[in-house]
Amino acid sequence: MKELLIILMSSVLVDNYVLSKTLGICPFLGVSKKIDQAVGMGIAVIFVMIMATAATWPVQVYLLDPNGLGYLQTIVFILVIAALVQFIEIVLKKFIPGLHKALGVYLPLITTNCAVLGVTIDNFGNHSVGGEIITGLNFGQSLVYAAGSGLGFLLAMVLFSGVRSRIDGPTTPKVFRGLPVTLIAASVVSLAFLGFGGIIDNLFK
Amino acid sequence: MDKNSKLSVVTKGFLKENPVFVLVLGTCPTIAVTTGLVGAVSMGLAATAVLICSNLVISLLRNIIPDKVRIPCFIVIIAGFVTLVQMLMHAYLPDLYELLGIYLALITVNCIILGRAEMFASKNRPLDSVLDGLGMGLGFTIALICMALIREVFGKGQIWGVDIPFLKDHTIGFLTKSPGGFLVFGLLIALSTVIAAKQGKPAPKLGCAQCPQAGICRSAGVTDDDCAKTEGGND
Fold first, then answer.
1. Mean pLDDT, rounded, of chain A
2. What is the extent of the structural domain holding B193?
3. Does B155 reach chain A within 8 Å, measured CB to CB?
4. Using CB atoms, which residue from A112, A180, A182 is nearest to B213?
5. Tens digits of per-residue pLDDT, B170-200?
6. Domain boundaries defined on chain A
7. What are the angstrom distances between the C-alpha of A75 and each of A107, A144, B55, B62, B139?
8. Which of B85, B110, B221, B230: CA 20 to 30 A from B44?
9. Contacts of residue B234 in chain A, CB cutoff 8 Å?
């Protein structure tokens, strides 16, 4: 249980996908202007990350690895994610139209979001849990890791949409207006997350 | 097409239409792998190799791929070449393979490559597409080198892993972390804005117009204005 909590906390705060690993920058900069869009996108990302992990983990462990096909990881994962997103969209449209109305528009955007592919590949990478390095998470840990990464994405989007509403004013120098000041604001938010660095190790000692 | 225009297909990617600083595509690797020159150059060249090959194949298949499923087709072709590059690097350059880690696999979803497939290779002849891939890939590499030079020299006091005498003792450590990446990228985009303003061109904005998914964004109610937040930047 403690292990899962460590994975969750560190993927939300310390190894935040947007602010620390700098993946998924396009939606982070593009869809964070209005808070309702930011929340919609964030929730859709959480949803797809968890579903994608649930789909790709068994594929890797029960299909690719036993047959020595590990090198096909990238191509198989992106196909599985693309098909899964299509499938989720169709299912939501048919059975839960309300949710489809809220999230459906963001779903196709997520197919080629590098954070989603990143999480599914990272599940088999190295993770530091309570002082020791684990290579390859098990299924439960992977799901928690995906949920944490998605939550971290949502958190970053919401925080940043708050910051953005205040930066593009008339006091900003003309050259910096628009994209440059947005990136520099992202730098400051990212700097704040750098402060979480050692928190996990001390919290769960 | 005569020789000059062929050359301009290649060179336009270097500065005039630099994929990173002018078109603002491929932001993620630009910030992630530019803590050192070694990583930047190897990432840039790996992406260039994938871009040239995928542009060639997509251009050859441009009349065969049905319009409706073109994006999944492009992604599969790109992912195939990324896998090839991964296997080659794993075998012959294991150190670089370790250094680039997950970002090598993520070339698959790099929007420069998908963007060029959609904007250029699916509409042009194979030779031009290869040249465009070469130019855009080298432009991406140049941009990564700019970022990495600033971050490595001032962040680590090194250049290509070799210590610089005076700077080694006076480093700005945060430049090598992700906030430093955002900051340097923001400053370079500001520089690019100044240059664009001098030439009377619009300021660089997030590459939504180049993005293959712009259509989806628009149907999602995310207007160009939301996406490209540079209004008032250059008026």
1. 86
2. 13-219
3. no
4. A112
5. 888 888 888 999 999 999 999 988 888 888 8
6. 2-203
7. 20, 24, 18, 21, 26
8. B230
9. 178
